[in-house]
Write a structure and sequence with these properties.
This protein is α/β, with parallel strands linked by helices. It has eleven helices and 14 strands. The longest helix is centred in the first third of the chain and has 22 residues, at about 10-30. The two termini are about 20 Å apart. The structure holds pyridoxal-5'-phosphate. Pyridoxal-5'-phosphate binds near residues 59, 60, 157, 160 and 181.
Length: about 375
């Protein structure tokens, strides 16, 4: 039996009629760029995240970039973040003209280690971007405390954490802004590219609405230089349909993670993902750690079991960030976990038989 890493079709099959209906609505209203379906989704997503505002944009990368711009981050500024994330987190900082400053991560959660922040703060530091990696939030209380003490802004990269919680609060609702990606493979994925910013800050909401639409509040009256980062109408409508299912899908992922961890818990040479007591992990990615990662992935591939690596090279070791001048050894925990983690197949529709098959083959691959 083939076990794909992700099966978007399996999920689509369960909501096909709802999707067809909503697409027809968008066509009938010709509401293709922004418009009522995006506004409706923004209201629903703000409600879901328990924030006052949500602004639909073109992607998670747009969400991060426009949040930074909207909060006034620019050339000469430094923004603290982590090296083990998708490159968009750092790119957004660079695209504002600011510089990413990396800090190492916690070995259990793979998230920003709050104990590393203080020594990375300089006169130029303006903001912190914790990344809620794999669907588990960073430890936000100490991060917020350091930020407030030093007058720094906090932007939560929640691109992998739709519905994750920290001490009962929704991911994205704790800092000054929360940024989401609706890339198709996310827990809440569009059928194309899309993203959103959530915030309780009225001025920021206004500013991002302008920035995403060429700096205009009223058509052809441009109060500032902006960009085209609007969400398209089809994506807004589809996301509204899918948002209703998200809590059940997240529960499905959590159930699958419990099954995996139960079966893999005692297996020598495998470290299962750690769940911090402070929050609710929604398992966008279920990553175990092993020593011979590449060999394991190849062996599982031979059995038609497909895994991923998120992410094999930390950002300070990428050619794109060579100018930062950091080398191997600069962030030992991020480097170690990046060389060890393997993302196992994970999606809500994954069956217990498929999970057993992954586990059995993984054990066999590790034992010879
Ligand atoms: C942690 C993180 N940040 C940012 C992004 C960028 O989102 P998008 O691909 O929608 O631009 C992603 C998406 O993969 C992500 O996982």
């Amino acid at each position: 039996m083939k076990v794909p890493f992700l099966d978007l079709k399996a999920q689509y099959e369960t909501i096909k009629d709802e999707v067809a209906y909503t697409i027809q609505q968008v066509l009938d209203k010709t509401a293709f760029a922004g418009g009522p379906f995006v506004s409706q989704f923004e209201k629903e997503f703000a409600g879901f995240c328990k924030t006052k505002y949500a602004i639909g944009v073109g992607s998670g990368t747009d969400a991060l970039w426009l949040s930074l711009l909207g909060l006034g981050i620019g050339p000469g500024d430094e923004v603290i973040t982590v090296p083990n994330t998708f490159i968009a987190t750092a790119e957004a900082i660079s695209y504002c003209g600011a510089t990413p400053v990396f800090v190492d991560v916690d070995e259990k959660t793979f998230n920003m280690n709050p104990g590393q922040i203080q020594s990375a703060i300089t006169k130029r530091t303006k903001a912190i971007i914790p990344v809620h990696l794999f669907g588990q939030t960073a430890d936000m209380d100490p991060i917020m405390e350091i930020a407030r003490k030093h007058g720094l802004l906090v932007i939560e990269d929640s691109c992998q954490a739709h519905g994750a919680e920290y001490k009962g609060r929704m991911a994205g609702s704790i800092g000054d802004a929360g940024c989401f990606s609706f890339y198709p493979g996310k827990n809440l994925g569009a059928y194309g590219e899309a993203g959103a910013v959530v915030t309780n800050n009225e001025d920021l909401d206004k500013k991002i609405r302008m920035l995403r639409d060429h700096g205009q509040e009223k058509k052809y009256y441009h109060g500032m230089i902006g960009w085209n980062a609007r969400m398209d109408g089809f994506q807004g409508a589809i996301l509204s349909v899918k948002l209703k299912h998200l809590p059940a899908w997240n529960e499905g992922r959590r159930k699958n993670a419990t099954l995996y961890s139960g079966l893999l818990g005692g297996v020598p040479g495998v470290i299962v993902p750690g769940e911090a007591a402070y929050g609710k992990h929604i398992y966008h990615i279920y990553a175990v750690r092993v020593k011979n990662r590449d060999q394991l992935i190849a062996r599982l591939g031979e059995k038609d079991i497909h895994c991923g690596i998120h992410y094999p090279i930390p950002l300070h070791l990428q050619d794109a960030y060579e100018s930062i001048g950091k080398r191997m050894g600069s962030y030992p925990v991020a480097e170690r976990v990046a060389s060890e983690y393997v993302s196992l197949p994970m999606f809500p529709e994954l069956s217990s038989e498929q999970i057993s098959q992954v586990v059995e083959n993984l054990k066999q691959a590790l034992s010879n």
